[in-house]
Amino acid sequence: MKYQKLVLVSMCLVLAACGEAVTPESADGADESAVSMERANPLLADWHTPFGVPPFDLIESTDYLPALRAGMQQQMAEVDAIVANPEQPTFANTIVALDVSGGTLGSISRPFFAVNGAHADDVIRETAKTVAPELAAHRDNISLNGGLFERVDAVFRQREKLALNGEDLRLLEETHKRFVRAGANLELTAQTRLREINSELATLSQQFQENLLNETNEFEFLVTDRADLGDLPGSLVSLAAEEAKRRGHDCDECWLFTLQRPSINPFLQYSPNREMRRKLFDGYAMRGDNDNENDNKEIVQRTVQLRTERAALMGYETHAHFVLSNNMAETPANVYGLLNQIWTPALRVSKEEREALQAMMHEDGIDDALRGWDWRYYTEKVRKAKYDFDEDALRPYFEVNAVRDGVFAVSTELFGITFRQLEDVPTWHPDQQVFEILDADGSHLAILYMDFFARETKRGGAWKNALRLQSNVDGFVTPIITNNFNFPAPTEVSPSLLSLGEAETLFHEFGHALHGMFSDVTYQSLAGTQTPRDFVEFPSQIMENWMREPEVLQMFAKHYQTGEEIPQGTIDKIGASAKFNQGFATVEYMAAVYLDMAYHTLDSTEAVEPRAFESSAMTDIGLIEEIIPRYRSGYFSHIFSGGYSAGYYSYIWSEVLDADGFQAFKETSLLDKDTAARYRKEVLSKGGTAPGMELYVNFRGREPEIGPLLEKRGLN
């Protein structure tokens, strides 16, 4: 309770500073008459909501900035109290006290950044730009607080005498490491420069994402001839027609396509109009590189320079050396060692695929060379010819709620958990669905928000957020998790029907959700997905494996109109074509990995021109011109605004783990409860309380092997 008292006193100071007449008694509700009659900021008030979820129905966009500033002020008061403590530093009064500090800031910042990613208006975006450098400075004010580090270091130096349990020792070691990696040991001049770098990087990151969102939203491609849509599935035809109307095009028959993946990818797959495919492909590939107000090249250049300078300040050869020293991979050499084992066979297979596509193109009477905008179109033609399999014919069996129920059913079979949809919970958008997750014994486990559909206020991709982290310092706090997607929205004539890849994405993100929901640790900084980047994707990627299994498809894949189960013949075709086009999929992803590593293994702060640098990096690895990196520099938000710098390799690193780990189930049975219980106990519940490889070995009984990955992708 001593931590709660500290928070209460700090909150009173903060609210008083913000103009609220609040006393310790009124904070507990005992003296409500002392509270101002003006509208209180709901983010700083008690949340009288089901399960303590954020009161999204009461929050206005203008509430976030003052609340975030109040939260920062409160945490600094808590940190000052730790530093001023006259008692000798102990694990409890320093390490634990620091870990629980910032509770109010976390309860505000996590919903804010979730909304900023999924449903940002102009006020939210401006708040994000304003607060980014302020939050960076706030983090530096804690990490570079000399008095605080003295106390942390004092506890760390006596760690062998403290008889700490495994998780306590892990928290101590990780806390100390975090300070050192943040520059606590640097000279004052170097710390001052580090603060400047961190502030500028925070601003650049936010600007990169804003430019990308603007460029994506401003692009539109109008089609007025139905023939140019080819065999585009009816649900997507309707979606494109509705998008044209929504954007103000007054035409009887027209269809509008955007650079959102649910829009552009199907058009590239099905439109027979090669010139239109080129224009849409170029629109996507040139985002952030059009020499306009949304151009990201200068941001990329400056970001790379600053990261290189910061790494040198910290005593590291490159930014990649700095980042990887805290990951499973440890060094750039180890990353390249894995990449090079996969790149050579993947490139070979992609060239074989290119020849097949080129031959099909010639059969169409086109003598020109295959281009990037042709790849998806002719891939579909070859797939149909080779496997008699139209992937988009699966969409009627993958209605979004059916796929959701499928991953729920798998989780129930594996772990015994159940799901109860809630209708009385505030959300940030009407499309959101909210579920209470119940453990096998019927007890409350977590709350899960699911936000499925693409919109202009949402950034691209799919991701997981935590609105509240699990912890157990002053009682067990259950997690609140969100899954976010960019699936095609329902239309007047059709529900949201997913592609095979989109269905896998739903399973993937739910794997992240399980990691957050099953967390069973003491300290929030070690909870759930708070793990190294190259381990965090393991629980998400292993979940994808169940999606294509015949036994699982039969559980949920039913035609949305007729209720007919997916035919066995179709399931067989899914299996037979699983390795089809894997050369392309592997190469386009790995090209982006190599690009990430190329930028972040630079050891000089000399400016690089992104367009030329990217071209040179791709030439160095022998990338064929028909394939571009999955993310080019101008829209590579994973590394320039998403926390994956020198870490985009994590997906393939984790795929080695997931391909090998899934064999543990295949060796027993697909839905084996004992194996699932071991996986939950040794991996999902542990968060970051032990190194990733240790967790994996505890589950699997040995270190992973690369063979299952090469077999899975057809690269052996």
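[next item in queue]
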Amino acid sequence: MSCRLVLQTVLTAALAASAVPAWAQDVRPATHVVVDYRVQPGDTLIALLRDGADWASVQRANNVADPKRLQPGSLLRIPAHLLREQPALAEVVHAYGSVSVTRLSTETAIALISGENLAAGDVVRTGAQSSATLRFVDGARVLLRPDSELKIERLAQSRAGASTTLRLERGSADSAVPPVSSARGASAPSRYEMRTPQANLGVRGTDFRTAAEGGTTRVEVLEGRVGARAGSGNAAARSESLVGAGFGAVSAAGGMTPPRALPAAPTLAGLPERVERMPLRLSWQSAAPTRVRAQVLTTDEPPRLVVDCVFDTAPARWSEDIADGRYELRVRAVDADGLEGRDTRAAFVLKARPEPPFIAAPTPGGRTIDDSVRLAWTRNAVAARVRLQVADTADFAQPRIDRADLDAGEARIALPLGTHHWRVASILASGDQGPFSDAHSFTRTLPPAAPPPAEPQQSDEGVLLRWPSSAPAGTRWQVQVARDAAFGQMVSEGTVTEPQWLLREPPAGSYFLRVKTIDADGFAGPFGQAQQIEVPSSPWWWLIVPALLLLL
């Protein structure tokens, strides 16, 4: 069959294109695809076609009178494989984490960074929690997710549009293909094809996801339609499917499954709008707990994928270090075959730095009797100063103390009796303040009262010292007896659970006694006033009369 006859046959078939859905054209060989081209000023038929093309047959099929004087605005129908093409480049919009490229001319993988260009033959790989976003000449984008490998098999453009063919060897990729090509003069969408070891996916004006792992390929269509054909490369189709928006399909060795509805977007509640702690942990309450994929992306356009993982239940937790900023959480349900549904999205702000100091004193929930309370904390090495807040209520609605000028690790604050709440935050030299520490509380209280002066009584074993007490159950008393008023020459000491102390057969002389009260929870008051006791040398030593002296 002559070249002219082949061309006429293709063009004749193209006249019935209205009966052929667009997706079917996308999965057919390029030699069977016909595009509509709107003539631009200065176009010639010879300039539009590739070298060696039978332009005369195209002229006759389109009833063109003069191939050198085409009518601007008129419509030509031209087989795609006859159009003159030029190699195109893809732009790396984002390269986050560990991303590498192996160029066609070398077998060595090198780091890939944002702003670089890619050509046909290049292979891009992403590591754990790493991602790359590529943008093509017609505005189509692909987000290569973590642990993935993508080969650019074809990048070309002509006056009738662009042609992009990608091969996802493993991992996951999210594609967004504009419905109309931005190429000059094109009235038909550009061709975009995603291939995997198990399937070919042809699309026009579509938003869809592809995953290739474990010997299967999954396709999930969010907008538009995808023509899915089982098999790889240009192999004969074993099964074909048209997968519409909201549906997905799985391709494996046995062929393509019928499209089925994607899981519904999960209903989430309780997601925080601001996160102030690392590592990142996001919790929610779901109406129907299920396995989900949770992703965190930046708010750039296009967004940059930061972390991505599948979780059986909430919360979603990541150990990776993530910079402060504005983010979007995307959560979607995952069914038993791994098909993922539509996203539920929620914006949040991460502001975890500079990290707050650690609380040192007083002990959280403790009590103090000091009029001037000592508050102490650690220091963040990168911070210039600390902000301190003390409030009467846990919500800090009206702080009693609010100071942002503290450059030391402690402060003494005069506070009234009662319960107080306090927290601290680090401030950089630039003035950037980080989040507050967890709030802690303490109570300033009066000390437990010391017992009244002891009353010595005669005992067969010595002098029994008693003091009256109406203390509650669990109260203890610490007792010290010394030869001197400074209690440097200790005679005896200990802790008792009854309000009495036995001074066993003391030699004659002066003794000093003091007692402190310890509440049941261990909170101790100060020692009471020292009591002086005179033990005479008389054999009737138990007839002593205590001298109660106030020692200042």
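[queue empty]
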